[in-house]
From TrEMBL:
<dbReference type="InterPro" id="IPR009835">
    <property type="entry name" value="SrtB"/>
</dbReference>
<protein>
    <submittedName>
        <fullName>Uncharacterized protein</fullName>
    </submittedName>
</protein>
<dbReference type="InterPro" id="IPR023365">
    <property type="entry name" value="Sortase_dom-sf"/>
</dbReference>
Length: 93
């Protein structure tokens, strides 16, 4: 992993048994949240979502499951949280 990636991207992956206290309220609002993506020095600061029934759900839905043309970053339905997962990010600007 490059030093830039180590320094700029902070992932806070959520697992129910080890839920970080600051994410408990978000998880109660939407249990599809599986992590957080933040890139320091940018406006990138988003939840990472995963919908087990619809792999592309968060292409056009926001955190509260309302339709949103920008969507959110998400993991594929078959992915599991690990260092080697591919995070799917589309144009959310």
């Amino acid at each position: 992993m490059s030093n830039i990636k180590k320094n700029l991207i902070a992932f806070s992956f959520l697992h129910e048994p080890a839920m970080l206290p600051e994410f408990q309220e978000l998880y109660q609002r939407n249990p599809d949240i599986v992590g957080w993506l933040k890139v320091d020095g940018t406006r990138i600061d988003y939840p990472i979502m995963q919908n087990p029934q619809d792999a592309e759900y968060y292409l056009n839905h926001g955190f509260d499951k309302e339709e949103n043309k920008n969507g959110l970053p998400f993991l594929d339905v078959h992915s599991r949280i690990s260092d080697s997962d591919i995070l799917l990010i589309h144009d959310i600007t």
